[in-house]
Design a protein that fits this description.
By secondary structure, the chain is α+β, with helices and mostly antiparallel strands. The chain has one domain. The chain is about 30% helix and about 30% strand.
Length: about 80
């Protein structure tokens, strides 16, 4: 059993674009948010490797909802 403690977790944001055009307006087609930080990344890799893992830290689900969706959803322009 591996226990990871992440008290200062991060929110990783990934933006997808269909094509990057230099000198033009580029629109985001997808914005994804996920929990990150050293402890959570270690827990994720250990779980993929088949280890039993418990990750302990702040309430990241609430932080992701609060920071990503509320702040970014209405501001991103989508080509879809």
């Amino acid at each position: 059993m591996i226990l990871t403690v992440t008290l200062n977790a991060a929110i990783d944001k990934r933006y997808r674009m269909k094509k990057l055009r230099l000198g033009e307006v580029n629109r985001v087609s997808l914005c994804q948010c996920s929990a990150g930080g050293k402890g959570l990344n270690v827990a994720r890799v250990a779980a993929i490797a088949g280890e039993s893992v418990t990750a302990f830290g702040v309430d990241l689900q609430a932080a992701i909802r609060e920071n990503c969706w509320r702040n970014w959803q209405g501001r991103m322009k989508s080509d879809s």
